[in-house]
Amino acid sequence: MSVANLCHRLQPQVSARTAAGFAEVLRRLGAPLQVAVAGRIKSGKSTLVNALIGRRVAPTDIGECTRLVTRFQYGTVDRVEIVFTDGRKQVLPFAADGMIPAELGVDIEQVSHIEAYLTNAVLQGMTVIDTPGLGSLDAASVSRTEQLLGAAKHRKEEDDEEGSDELDDTSRNAVAGAEAVLYVVTQGVRADDQQALAAFTAATASREAGPVNAIAVLNKADTIAPESVEGSGGDVWKAATLLAEKQASTLKPRVADVLPVIGLIAESAESGGFTSADAEALRQLAELDDDVLQTMLISADIFTSWECDVPAGTRLRLLEKLDLFGISHAVEAIRKEPEITAGALRRALLDASGLEAVRQRLSIVFAARADGIKAAAALASVTALAHASADPAERQRVHDAIEVLLAKPEAHQLRLLEALTLVASGAVDMPEDLSEEVLRVGSNADIGAQLGKPGAPRPELAAHALERAGWWRSFASFGATPAQSRVAHVVHRAYFLIWQQVREA
């Protein structure tokens, strides 16, 4: 990889401090992509983490662990490591239920973060970082979380539109390794959601906020009242999809997309929480008269207190795993196909949760471009190391090496990600339609999506790519400012390479 070669080549030519920084950059380049999961308190972050990992390991109830940064990564032996602010580590086993212990038995004010190692296939390709929620009801957690998100200063300077994106040193060390952010919102996107998202994306490997390294999910989609969303036609999932689209317009260009998801159902279906006993209980519910069942499903209290053959404790267990929406969906699936197996019912619930769409988007935005994202993050770190050097000659040496690297054809993806970040962050001002085009070309791995023509035949894609390549070349030469021209040349090159790829396929 070109950035790795740059670090190897420069290490003997720079100070010991800068060389140590390059060594850390090389370590991150060789590690799995690191994704931080962020959001407000009670947004269901930890539930979503469990669903993504496919194992219920992150505590979801308010407790010590939910007030700390927890990094879930691949390991050959399952274990929990408490990392203290002074660098000490203490190893703990997972609790009997397979989760991180609810109580750690240490002074959490002395804890930097938690490292959880799991023999889990998902984590071989992605490290997931679970973060404290913004807006905790616990005073100590409020302070810790606001420091993590840079929100303390935002709160003190409510009249200051800019605020602050600074993180405390402990939180920065725990989160700064992340190259990407999955931001969890619920029904209302608030001003501090946008501030927190800006702080998190800016903190990840010193990158600027943008759709290169951030997507958002609208969690708890089943709690949305369809009648509150115009055009939903009374359908919960349609309402969630429309609301997610509206939130995307609010959060962009901070994120590539906003997708609806039901984290609780996803966690239960994917992490082994849904059992054959649960399937059998749902079959019993499916046998009830429709009027009775519809009445029971009006509220959780009615569902658990109604007199019927299914024990109240069993109904409470179903409610905790699936909530009313999941129960209703499962009963409908059983009534449509009475012989459905427990495994097929679990898959139907997983489909209803929206998790697969989130995984696909993670794959498109993050996994498929992980090397490019990590390389861009690494290059940002190398640049920061150079700026921090006290030696002017060293700074110039690193700067010159970066310019040479970016001039090489194989560095085009880095240049495209850099251009995308400049436009998304507002560092380069572009007309709105051109900004949207840059975001589309740079934020997608699928060629049809890049060109804004999903599903179009190859001849049409090739013709459009060539036409846009010519347009951007003309714009770079005749209509752009110097800063816009730099971006335009990169976009022209991107379209030209797409044209070559489509023509040769």
Structure in a nutshell:
The protein is α/β, with parallel strands linked by helices. Helices cover 54% and strands 10% of the residues. α2 runs antiparallel to α16, α16 (370-388) packs antiparallel against α17 and α21 runs antiparallel to α22.
Shape: globular
The averaged pLDDT comes out at 82
- Main beta sheet: 9 strands, mixed
Find the structural class using helix and strand composition.
alpha/beta
Measured distance between first and last alpha carbons: 25 Å
Strand content: 5-15%
As residue ranges, the low-confidence spans are 136-175, 205-209
In angstroms, what is the radius of gyration? Answer: 25 Å
Task: Tell me the number of helical segments per DSSP (H or I, 4 or more residues long).
Answer: 22
Widest beta sheet: strand line-up = 4-3-5-2-6-1-7-8-9
Tally of DSSP β-strands: 9
Portion of residues in helices?
Answer: 40-55%
Describe this structure as you would to a colleague.
- This protein is globular.
- The longest helix is centred in the middle third of the chain and has 25 residues, at 312-336.
- Strands 4-3-5-2-6-1-7-8-9 form a 9-stranded mixed sheet, sandwiched between helices.
- Strand 3 (79-84) and strand 4 (89-92) form a beta hairpin.
- Helix 1 runs antiparallel to helix 2 (16-29), helix 2 packs antiparallel against helix 16 (370-388) and helix 10 (276-286) packs across helix 14.
- The protein has helices spanning 2-10, 16-29, 45-53, 139-149, 151-156, 169-175, 191-203, 236-251, 263-270, 276-286, 290-296, 300-305, 312-336, 342-353, 355-365, 370-388, 392-406, 412-424, 432-443, 447-450, 458-478, 482-504; strands at residues 33-39, 70-74, 79-84, 89-92, 111-118, 126-130, 180-185, 214-218, 258-260.
- It has 22 helices and 9 strands.
- By secondary structure, the protein is an alpha/beta fold.
